[in-house]
Design a protein that fits this description.
By secondary structure, the chain is mainly α. It has helices at residues 2-32, 37-42, 57-64, 70-101, 105-117, 126-135, 144-164, 169-177, 182-193, 195-211, 214-219, 228-235, 244-278. Helix 4 packs antiparallel against helix 10 (195-211) and helix 10 packs antiparallel against helix 13 (244-278).
Length: 280
């Protein structure tokens, strides 16, 4: 009994230390967003003092500095994130339902291809992807969700397929007897039952797309469109003065919505992952 208590205490201390290590970069960025540039360079890990504290000036400068408006970049990030996540959820849930209910070689091949895509590094395909996106005119915030659908389909199909296998087939058969076709059966019967996995997949996809830098950088026409990560990167270019305070402020602004969203929906993530991966 005493040995178990010691073990639990050691694990608790270990997890607290790990948590502090993970939170330190976020806390450092938040702290430096209220300091002057000179203080950031010389006293990076020190708390703001009366001389170095800038209040909200860094946030105002971050939003207003540069030729490209920050609010425009935020709007493009929001558009890409919402449209891409919605497209992934609808298309992959339908694909997973088909894969789970149709016992054919084609369905199994599609499923294994989706699973295989989860282990393919993005760096292997990024140059051919950029060329293909440019050829097919997918280089705008209104068309890039199609590319995100391809990259987000693997995990989503895997989780949805596992959950669908746990839904009794008799429910769908009863809907068919009542006159529902495949489309109505899916959207009226199956889709509402996928709520736990829909939320967990949605949270994971939204966090990935909102924070993604490399794919928009390679695909989008950066003379016209910039997402928040690209905007911050161009704000600290290699030429001219770099306003570190403004950069820190914009980083805080960019991570705040996704942190709030994650904390609100985190209870659904583990539940959805477990149910989607274990059922069936």
């Amino acid at each position: 009994m005493k040995r178990d208590h010691v073990r639990k205490t050691i694990l608790s201390v270990l997890f607290v230390v790990i948590c502090i290590i993970y939170l330190m970069p976020i806390f450092t960025v938040l702290m430096n967003s209220f300091k002057t540039n000179s203080a950031i360079n010389t006293e990076t890990f020190a708390f703001p003092t009366e001389q170095s504290f800038t209040g909200a000036d860094n946030y105002v400068n971050g939003i207003n500095v540069g030729e490209y408006p920050f609010l425009k970049s935020a709007g493009y990030s929001l558009l890409i994130t919402i449209s891409s996540a919605a497209l992934i959820l609808v298309c992959t849930s339908m694909a997973a339902w088909y894969i789970s209910r149709v016992n054919s070689i084609f369905a199994r091949i599609v499923y294994y291809l989706c699973v295989f895509s989860m282990v393919v590094p993005f760096q292997m395909v990024m140059f051919t992807l950029a060329k293909t996106a440019n050829t097919l005119h997918l280089d705008s915030p209104f068309t890039i969700p199609v590319i995100y659908l391809g990259f987000g389909a693997g995990l989503a199909v895997f989780m949805f397929a596992g959950f669908v296998k746990g839904i009794p087939l008799e429910i769908e058969e009863a809907a068919a007897i009542d006159g529902c076709g495949p489309v109505r059966t899916f959207f009226l019967i199956v889709f509402p039952m996928l709520k736990p996995v829909l939320i967990s997949v949605g949270v994971l996809e939204i966090m990935w797309i909102w924070n993604d830098y490399l794919l928009p950088y390679l695909v989008l026409d950066r003379t016209k469109y910039k997402t928040i990560p690209i905007h911050i990167q161009y704000l600290q270019g290699s030429y001219g003065h770099v306003d570190l305070g403004a950069v820190m402020a914009l980083i805080v602004i960019s991570i705040t919505p996704i942190v709030v969203f994650y904390l609100t929906a985190q209870k659904y993530i583990i539940k959805g992952v477990v149910e989607g991966a274990v059922k069936g």
